[in-house]
């Protein structure tokens, strides 16, 4: 499964001092992923993905966020720097689920 969407980067309030930056997957897509994944989960309910933003591609995990009702994707500092992105910016994100 490959998903492409535009999402706003945001900082996790609980880790604001560390500037952990995320983008939320759309709720509808997250529901589809939950159905597809079934019981297949790793720590914290994570799922392995390959992500592309601009010219940067990397492998990471998405995590369920009950508050937002969707999966969230961490966007590491190296990618934010390479793509000139900061919290509040909108990025076009490609997410490919791995291990399915």
From TrEMBL:
Pfam families: DUF1905 (PF08922). It comes from the Bacteria. InterPro entries: AF2212/PG0164-like_sf, DUF1905. This is DUF1905 domain-containing protein.
């Amino acid at each position: 499964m490959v998903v492409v969407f535009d999402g706003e980067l945001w900082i996790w309030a609980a880790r604001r001092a560390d500037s952990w930056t995320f983008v939320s997957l759309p709720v509808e897509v997250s529901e589809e992923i939950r159905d597809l994944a079934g019981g297949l989960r790793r720590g914290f309910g994570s799922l392995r993905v390959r992500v592309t933003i601009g010219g940067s591609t990397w492998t990471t995990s998405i995590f369920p966020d009950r508050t937002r009702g969707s999966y969230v994707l961490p966007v590491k500092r190296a990618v934010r720097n390479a793509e000139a992105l900061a919290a509040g910016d909108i990025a076009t994100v490609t997410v490919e689920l791995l291990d399915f």
